[in-house]
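Lecture 7 notes: from sequence to structure.
We start with the chain below.
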Amino acid sequence: MKLFITLFILTLSCVSFGQTKMTLYLKDGTIKNGYGKRKNQDIIFSNTKKDETVKYELEIIDSIYCGNERKPEIYHIVEGWGKNYNMAELYKRGKKMDVYIKESSSSSMYGKYNFTSYSIKRHEETELADFGDGNLWDSFKNRGSKYFEDCPELAENIKKGKKGFRKADLKDIADFYNSKCN
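Predicted structure tokens for the same chain:
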């Protein structure tokens, strides 16, 4: 039920509807304030609701801020399959590390499947760390313990596969990192 509610809310996000007030942070450092909406792999954007629109490809956008001060929505643009880009919504901001949520779907002759995955990013990093890529040759125990080697206690708990320190516990791992690691 919680997954359904999350999917529903993300479907109704600020970048899905008509011209919504937003700020675009481009990869070249440019900041654009105005109104926009997502259309496929682009953001259709204008400085005011009456100005002519400009199309920005997700590929050149670093992040998007929209919503209001009480409930801001922050999206980080990440590479998807092929030449597609996805928007990962900031799920939880931490003292040193943030958690992002990504929604994706897949269709087959058996139906359509929706997936939710979580990624993390230290504040000083530019890319999301995504441990849900299904890499069979390099387990989360190896990749996670290497990623968190700056926090020996956390790296050791991941390496041992302790309860609460598995790939499915990424949100809790980020909380641990934010509260107990230097």
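Points to note: Confidence is low (pLDDT under 50) at residues 1-12. Residues 53 and 103 are 27 Å apart (CA to CA).
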